[in-house]
Here is the input.
Amino acid sequence: MSIEVQYFLSNILFGLAIVIPLYYLLCRYFKKSKKKRKLKFGHYLVAVLIFSIIFFIRWKVSEININKDNDIKEPNQEEKTTTQTTTKKAQNNPNYIGTTPKGYTIEKINGAYYVDGYLVVNKTYPLDSNWVPKNTYKPVTDEICSTCIDNDAYDEWIKMKNDATSIGLNIWIQSGYRSYEYQQGLYEKYVSRDGKQQADTYSARPGHSEHQSGLSFDLNSVNDSFAATDEGKWVQDNAYLYGFIIRYPKDKSNETGYKYEPWHLRYVGKDLASKLYNNGDWITMETYFGIDSRYKD
Ligand SMILES: [Zn+2]
Here is the structure.
């Protein structure tokens, strides 16, 4: 029995529980001639009895149905709990923005969006124009800075670079932090050269570039051919060991909103990086968290 049928039946029974005893009493009352019209105690008793029986049936119907629902649809109960927890979280958390379809909490803290505690920058989630990374290896003073990288990310980068060197590979940071204003200039330059539609496929709009986060950098050469170099191949399969991900993997542009960028690394920590590595078939942050990467206009 569906919830709708149960609701309908419950309402019908409630109506009957009122109407039938009333009808019974009226029948008893009008049955006699005008002068003798009077209801006895027994009549009231029968009316109450009819009411009680129908009400009891109504109660039983709804009870049986609820138990049935509990047996069959346990996930439903879980869903309810999730919704309750989410509502509770939302009430207690002033940064709460929403929950992704995969159940991760979205927050906005000091001008940046976080999903499940991870900072997310893409076409849907921008950084505020005045957002600047803190706790960087070199404090941010310039518009562009290759070592203005988050301290943890930079530590891991050094380990990664040294390990690469030890097997004869040479990797370096070609482009690290970029300010909002710098990205703005860059984007506008590309738009005037190739048009907005084309520029959007390879350059981020200001606020939407991960380079503003201090958690991302480009390696060696911003060119597709990097993937085929020894360095490119090694990075593809080893970056996760240091907590980095290939942020824009091959054939995932419909998810990330960007074409394949084998040179662009993003620090997320080893835990998430090893999940996203997926034996070389990188899972995007968008798919993992269940979020979009799309400009509003
Ligand atoms: Zn990049």
In short: The first helix runs from residue 3 to 31. The chain has ten helices and ten strands. The pocket of zinc ion is lined by residues 211, 216, 218, 264 (CB under 6 Å). Residues 65-75 have pLDDT under 50 and may be disordered.
